[in-house]
Amino acid sequence: MDEKKTLLEVKDLKVSFFTPAGEVKAVNGISYTLGYNEVMGIVGESGSGKSVEAYSIIGLLQSPGKVVGGTIEFEGENLLEYDEEKMRQFRGNKVSMIFQNPMTCLNPVYTIGNQLVEALLCHDKGYTKEQARKRAIEMLELVGINNAEKRIDQYPHEFSGGMRQRAMIAMALICEPKLLIADEPTTALDVTIQAQILELMKALQKKENTSIIFITHNLGVVAEICDRVSVMYAGHIVEQGPVNDIFYNPQHPYTKGLLASTPRLDEEGKERLIPIEGTPIDLLNPPQGCNFGPRCRDCMKICLREKPPFAEVGEGHISACWLHFRDQAGKEDRT
Amino acid sequence: MAGYIVKRIAVAILTLLVIICITFLLMNAVPGSPFLTEKSTPEMIARANAKYGLDKPLYVQLFNYIKNYARGDLGTSLKMQEGTSVSKIIFHQGKFALSLKLGLYALLLAVVIGIPLGCIAAYNRGKWIDGFLRVVTTVGVAVPTFVLATLLLVTFAVKLQKLPTLSGSLPDFKSYVMPVISLSFYYTCYVAKLTRTSMLDAINQDYIRTARAKGVKTRALILKHALRNSLIPVITYLGPVMAGIITGSFVVESTFSIPGLGKYFVQSVLSRDYPVIMATTVVLSALVILMNLVVDIAYKIVDPRITLTSKED
Amino acid sequence: MDGKFAKLSPFQVDPDKIPPVLPPLTEEDFSPAADEEKASMVEKHKSVSYWRDAWRRFRANTVSMVALAVFTLCLLFAFVGPKLIPYSYGDQYRSSQKLAPFTYSKGEETVRSIAGSCDGFYATALQRGSITALSKGDYFIRYKGRTYAFTLTKAVEKSVIILNSGAEEPLIVVKESAIKNGEYKDYKPIEFTDTPAEGATEIKLVNRVFPHVFGTDSAGRDIMARTMYGTRVSIIIGVVAALIVLVIGSIYGAISGLSGGAVDFVMMRIVELIYSIPEVLIVLLLQVVLKDPLQNWFDTSTSAFAQGLGDLGSGIVSIFITFALLYWVTMARIVRGQVLQLKQQEYVTAATALGAANGRIIRRHLLPNCVGQLVITTCLQIPSAIFLESFLSFLGLGVSAPMASLGSLCSDALETLSLYPYRLIFPGVILTVVVLTLNLVGDGLRDALDPRLKK
Question: Please, which chains are in contact with C (at least 3 CB pairs closer than 8 A)?
């Protein structure tokens, strides 16, 4: 396992939605890298741009959404330069994705097997139909579906929610992709099923050596599965670092707020949950300074005027907040 | 499945019974006798009434109708072809076959042309062809059948003399062209619009996103994933289409002088030939109800989620 | 975090700032911001009312706006148009039979040639008059240097013309045949008085000369006047039928939805039954069945209501009855669906929990939430009612002459279709345009009022 080698590098990605009311900058310049075999969590409240960011990687952005700047490099190739056919070959093959609501994500009028086999056959990998079916059964077994031989010919409505999400995972992994994007894969599931799916993903990640981008608003899930975490707020990454640093040594006021508003079982004596006050900003008219400024308890004058730069707050741990630069006031030498 | 079909047939028979009752009551609500003419004397009317059982109490008459229908006897014409059995007029003189053929061709055309047009429009959403088809179909559902039928008649039969003015008993292909087109045009446009809408609706569904994420080709995305789902509302609409085509056939058969059931029904209503009105109403209603049944079963084939046990909305 | 983290990360949002450069910072910059300052950074979203928002959406829909404009033109055509042309839907002008579009009858042509530069409005002073002892035909009156034309549809005896206002000169009345090349020959003056002479017959003057834009029919009636009238009749039928459906359907649906349980079950089975009846068959029957009893009622009843309906004719009234009997089921289903859906909404539960009365819940919560759906369905019901009426009239069952609807005009045109196809085309096109624009407006309303439906 070479953690240093980069699988995916996102540089200054900007995505906007061109609505009748104006340009909504859903993702406004985010950058990160993802190594092979790494699980990165992207955390943020709804509307923070985390799903939009993921969709632009896999080329699923729908009009009126559009990538307006930056690059996405996958194994050194800029995905944004791919033409439609190349992108299609890429989707599902090198990168695949699972979604939030397994109830609506499978086509109701085709059997599970049909949809799994299709995922394999639409990338010319030299499978015959029989081989593809065999592979599909293997995959179903791999994701823990009992009696896969029989189950493969059933329709999605004959599967429970958890089973469908397992089938979705099987479908996503059937082409052995290098990267799996999981967009809130457990949010729509019961808590017990959530845990099962997370266990499954963890096990499969180890087994198949797949990198995962795990998008969620649930910090507990992140702690469970991720190596590194990016915290997003209003189209920006505000803090990024190893999962332990984020959890035990959060630096950005937003991350702190998120953690304070999440119930935790490991910290005793902390009974009260503290909500983050205010509502997310209107992305049509983002504030001039820090996006979080208007909601921040420690907001300073500069925060309302300038966007904060990232400060390196630990090894591989960065945070974009003016608080980290407080001692720079009045100093001429700044590096 | 079998249980469902039995239940549906039971409901269909009940509906037919209600239709028979309503029709019977309506007919008898008309004052005067079908035999009342300038020359007729009260004795003649009474004699005629007695001959056809019209002197019996209403409920007895109604019961007789139902009993005879159950046996397949549709009664005897009182006026239009006096004394002739209605089933002979409808079935043996080819009226039913003629209307059925016309109706089925129109239905076929509406489906075979309408669905692909809808797909083409949805597939090319926002392009000129979509715009063009939208204009055509939107206008198409605003043109009444009789306007279209008569315009076709004037243009192709009278002015250009390419097609026959009177289609008669539809002896050849040429005589079919105008009646079938005018009968199906509205529904072709409607089916195309419906297919486009439900196709676009399907395209926005989560499972299409999943399929795209898998790397499915755009063509397969439309033809495999979106089409089958979007056919469900189209199939639901085919029941009303059949009813509408029968309605349209009244106009089309009159315009093109086709001696079919539709024209016959209108004539029987205008001349108050009770048994004929009853019989045609029952036959036409049975056709519509049968079509609805077929549609419900077709549903099952396209959509595996429907278990055909309950259909509450 | 007292300064020990103050190292800029090389990993910055803004690539222009790589290598990272901080702006000049002062102590002031790091003083806490006041709440007002924070609040000023958040631009408040103006909240817009439902109707204003819907109207904004509707206005943004070009197609619907154009359709609305065209439909308004149709309304003007139907309701204002008849006031602008000198012909009425029932008047028969004997010399004006079977005219092609944009032509005049021979008599009108003569008046035009005499009148020279004066085209159109002539006899303001001669709105009405009586004339006697003249045979049928077109006449022209020369009065104070102007020419007026009128048509006699039947012969009258005494030769007196009565004017509404006191005229000073004798009128000149000539027969049409006496005019040659714009000159009168062999005319004789006619006496006139201010008061009607005994036995004088009132006649109507053709006081304006206007082209027969759509031509005339075999009875000499102006087709444009008839089309205007027919459009009006069709639109009124459509609107009234839609309102009938709205009222019956919403009441039925609301009762069914609100009652629930066994009542709902029975009511919905009835709806299903009516739904599966091929209604057009019944409609045709109803048309025939209702004709005589209705006519009887109109003739015998003295109530104003019956008289008013009688003016409409039995055909139209039975169309309304048909709609009241059969066509409300879709509306009832929609309303019931809405009611059931809304009954489960939290705010209704909350209102019930807070002790709001049923009537108040219906008024304050259910109605405002249903109203969008109701407006859309009613709007789309109008064209379908117009369609049905035209269909019935086409088969000879709807309105009867001299009344006209767009359907009956098309039907009238059938006999002479090969000779005068335009008689079908004009009402046919207007019928299509009315239905088309109403459909488009309805679609626009749906998009505007029910944004959930729009993707």
Answer: A, B
Report the DSSP beta bridge partners of residue A91. Answer: A95
The C-alpha atoms of residue C61 and residue A307 are separated, in whole angstroms, by: 39
Best residue in B199, B214, B229 for a mutation probing chain A (most A CBs within 10 Å)? B214
Pick C292's closest partner by Cβ from B14, B31, B139: B31
**Distance separating alpha carbons of residues B179 and B172, to the nearest angstrom:** 12
Tokens of C317: 């009234």
Condensed to tens digits (0 to 9), the pLDDT of residues C332-354 reads 888 888 888 777 777 777 777 77
Pull the structure tokens for residue A172: 């996503």
pLDDT at residue A44, as a whole number: 83
Local confidence band at B112 (pLDDT 50, 70, 90 cut-offs) = very high
For every residue of C167-179, DSSP letters joined together read --SPEEEEEGGGE
Tell which A residues from 309 to 328 touch C, by Cβ distance under 8 Å. Answer: 309-314, 318-320, 322-328
The distance of A176 to chain B (nearest Cα, Å) reads: 12
Answer yes or no: are the C-beta atoms of A229 and A244 closer than 8 Å: no
Q: pTM (2 decimals)? A: 0.75
d(CA B141, CA C432): 9
Contact of C370 with C449, CB cutoff 8 Å: no
The residue whose two tokens read 């599909």 is A136
Phi and psi dihedrals of C269, rounded to 5?
-65, -40
Q: Is the dihedral of CA C87, C92, C95, C100 positive or negative?
A: positive
Q: Which residues of C touch B266 (CB under 8 A)?
A: 284, 395
Cα dist from C177 to C174, C205, C209, whole Å: 8, 18, 18
Cα gap C350→B254, rounded to integer Å: 59
The Cα–Cα gap between A278 and B270 comes to: 74
Mutate to test the interface with A, among C11, C44, C45, C46 (most CBs of A within 10 A): C11
Give me the amino acid identity at C59: R
Nearest CA-CA distance, residue C383 and chain A, Å:
32
Tell whether omega for the bond before A64 is within 30 degrees of 0, i.e. cis.
yes
Interface touch A91/B215, C-beta < 8 Å: yes
Would you call A277 exposed, middle or buried from its count of C-beta atoms within 10 A (0-12, 13-18, 19+)? exposed
Measured in Å, how far apart are chain C's first and last C-alpha atoms?
Answer: 48
> Which of C276, C417, C440 lies at the smallest CB-CB distance from B154?
C417
β-strand pairing of A179-183 with A65-74: unpaired
Contacts of C168 (CB under 8 A, 6+ apart): none
Residue with tokens 């009156």: C141
CA distance B163 to B150: 13
Q: Does residue B259 have a pLDDT over 70?
A: yes
Measure CB to CB from residue B144 to each of C277, C387, C421 and give the nearest one. Answer: C387
The 10 Å CB-count burial string (b at 16+, else e) for A127-164 is beeeebbebbbebbebbbbeebeebbebbbeebeebbb
> What is the side-by-side order of every strand in the sheet holding C161-163?
C192-193, C161-163, C128-130, C202-204
Helix (H, G, I), strand (E, B) or coil at A72: strand
Whether residue B309 is predicted with pLDDT greater than 60 in this model: the reply is: no
Predicted ipTM of the assembly: 0.81
Average pLDDT on C69-75 reads 88
Interface of C with B (CB under 8 A): 273, 276-282, 284-289, 292-293, 333, 337, 383, 387, 390-391, 394-396, 407, 410-411, 413-414, 417-418, 421, 424-425, 428, 431-433, 435-436, 439-440, 455
Instruction: Annotate B224-281 with DSSP letters as a single string.
Output: IIIHHHHHHHHHHHHHHHHHHHHHHHHHHHHHTT--SHHHHHHHHHHHT-HHHHHHHH
Within 10 angstroms of residue C173's Cβ, the number of other Cβ atoms is 22
Nearest to B269 among C288, C411, C431 (CB): C288
Tokens of C147: 């020419």
